[in-house]
Write a structure and sequence with these properties.
With 113 residues, the protein is mostly helical. The chain is built from six helices and three strands; from the N terminus they run H-E-H-E-H-E-H-H-H. The chain has a three-stranded parallel beta sheet with strand order 1-2-3. The radius of gyration is 16 Å and the shape is globular.
């Protein structure tokens, strides 16, 4: 992609992806990763990325590059409906409006004075 896309076009484009490879070592692209995960995409992360460990520790279905290398056919197959729904429920549990507002208010209180 070379040009900015309206959000609905961007989501339409990424919804056609079966797998997303995120080979960065630092925490980045969380919004894209969550969006792709919500759409049922295989998420393949570098095992050194802190997000990989966060997702694994919290029960999300994600893969490492090493796992994808050992079993390359998984990158061509969508995750199961159960895995997709499991990821969606974890996303909704961890990134809902009420929780984000609460965290923002707590953060704000730290810096008031």
């Amino acid at each position: 992609m070379k040009e900015f896309l309206p959000l609905n076009e961007y989501y339409r484009l990424i919804s056609s992806c079966v797998s997303a490879f995120m080979n960065h070592l630092r925490q980045q692209a969380l919004g894209n990763i969550l969006s792709l995960m919500y759409l049922g995409c295989n998420i393949i992360l570098n095992q050194e990325n802190p997000l990989y460990h966060y997702f694994k520790r919290n029960g999300f279905y994600v893969l490492s590059f090493k796992e994808a290398e050992k079993n390359p056919e998984i990158i061509f197959n969508p995750i199961s409906e159960n895995e997709k729904n499991h990821n969606i429920s974890l996303i909704e549990k961890n990134w809902n409006d009420k929780l984000m507002l609460s965290k923002t208010q707590k953060f704000k209180m730290l810096y008031e004075d």
